Amino acid sequence: MKKLTGARIVIEALIQENVKVIFGYPGGAVLPIYDEIFKQNKIRHILVRHEQAAVHAAEGYARSTGKVGVVLVTSGPGATNTVTGLADAMMDSVPVVCISGQVPTHMIGNDAFQEADIVGITRPCTKHNYLVKEISKLAGCIHSAFHIAKNGRPGPVLVDIPKDIQTFKYNYEGKKLTKSSISYKPKIRPPLEQISKFVNLLTKSKRPIFYIGGGVINSGLKASTLLCNLLKITGFPCTQTLMGLGATPTSHKQFIGMLGMHGTYEANLSMNKSDLMVCVGARFDDRITGKVSGFSPKSKKVHMDIDASSFNKSVNVDHLIQGDLSKILEMTIKYIEDNKITFNSQSISAWWSQINKWRSKNCLSYKKSSSIIKPQYALQRLDFLTKNFNPFITTEVGQHQMWAAQFLTFNKPKHWMTSGGLGTMGYGLPAAMGVQIAHPKDLVIDVAGEASILMNIQEMS
């Protein structure tokens, strides 16, 4: 078998991971990898103007496709410039693999030119990271990075590759024959007893509400479809977080608006007065709960999520279900059907009557003006004129972001890209670029504020 350089192994491993696009910026510590990119035509390289934007573009690509976004940057400042993007991807559970160059192994720790301990720096803001010190472990680290990034709760993984490792030669036998460097097997299927207890709680509830987060979208289209079916079966109301918009259609009559600080009157009061709150793929963020002791104080609480570290972190719940949401929802619907359980809409009719009274307040109404174009009106017109195109929407961060969430319609998952957990100004423009690369024939719109867009305005070039 012909031995390959480390740089060539990187490219071959990416090809085996079905990578089609890399967002990056070249530098001395990754020139061997760039030379290999130049020699092939299977992977397209998108040249950004700043490494932070490379990660945001990869996030947009990943969130709109469900695939892993890939970033390639050089050592030192090239690597440290990715930190904000990696932290953003970590907070919002976006699968990204960032490959960074590093000074040669024998110079690590000597304060060499453009050296930075990027593994140490990114340890708190990545799901996992690697410093590859042996050419024999390079391919395993690359393939493991993709496995970790996209399985379980998605997130960013960094692989730091010294320049000499990129030039050394070693055998590469392909993904199937490459020994993985880590065993990572998230729990996918919950015990049936947990499903049984959950359904029992559903049948007894008089004032239920489904609280839907971005985990549903991360779980895939199947999870969204199954959740829509469960809502139809039960007839229960649902609310969504900022990250969960589009998990179920926001135009549906059972959707009562976004929840939380910038949510609707009816959604927040329904949460406060409910007797059963079902959290599906959300994490009880402080923008949702406000004062924790006053959050849905009289309800039984169910939390379903693939990430056990989210359980009882800020809000204590009564029933936990760990697993992939598509599997949990599939098992729930099957249990309901197998046991011929029915939900009588009359039993919660009083609840819906109360919700509709709260709805009648029309909390998002505003006074129209003949002298200026109000942002709310502009977004309503944007929604009206583009909804038939089913556009992909990105935003920067600020008040315009909240207006976009309140006044735009999201009827499909993966069409809403915004920085939720970290609140990163400058996210929207490069994210929109990443979405457009993934969907070249579709309409992509970045809703921006005049300050936020300047944060990464260099990407206009």
Describe the structure.
With 461 residues, the protein is an alpha/beta fold. The chain has helices at 6-16, 31-38, 51-65, 77-80, 83-91, 118-122, 138-150, 163-167, 192-204, 215-219, 221-234, 265-273, 286-289, 325-338, 349-359, 375-386, 399-407, 428-438, and strands at 4-5, 21-24, 44-47, 69-73, 96-102, 128-131, 156-162, 169-170, 208-212, 238-240, 255-258, 276-280, 300-305, 319-322, 392-395, 416-417, 444-447. It has a 6-stranded parallel sheet, sandwiched between helices. A 6-stranded parallel sheet has the order 11-10-9-12-13-14, with helices on both faces. The model has no long low-confidence stretch (mean pLDDT 96).
Largest sheet: 6 strands, parallel
Radius of gyration: 24 Å
Beta fraction = 15-25%
Measured as a percent range, the helix fraction is 25-40%
* Termini separation: 44 Å
**Total number of β-strand segments?**
17
Structural classification: alpha/beta
Approximate shape? globular
Which stretches are poorly predicted, pLDDT < 50 over at least 5 residues? Answer: none
Strand order of the largest sheet: 3-2-4-5-7-6
Count helical runs.
18
Give the averaged pLDDT, no decimals: 96
Topology:
Elements: E1 4-5, H1 6-16, E2 21-24, H2 31-38, E3 44-47, H3 51-65, E4 69-73, H4 77-80, H5 83-91, E5 96-102, H6 118-122, E6 128-131, H7 138-150, E7 156-162, H8 163-167, E8 169-170, H9 192-204, E9 208-212, H10 215-219, H11 221-234, E10 238-240, E11 255-258, H12 265-273, E12 276-280, H13 286-289, E13 300-305, E14 319-322, H14 325-338, H15 349-359, H16 375-386, E15 392-395, H17 399-407, E16 416-417, H18 428-438, E17 444-447
Parallel strand pairs: 2-3, 2-4, 4-5, 5-7, 6-7, 9-10, 9-12, 10-11, 12-13, 13-14, 15-16, 15-17
Antiparallel strand pairs: 1-8
Helix pairs in contact: 1-2, 1-7, 3-5, 3-18, 9-14, 11-14, 12-15, 16-17
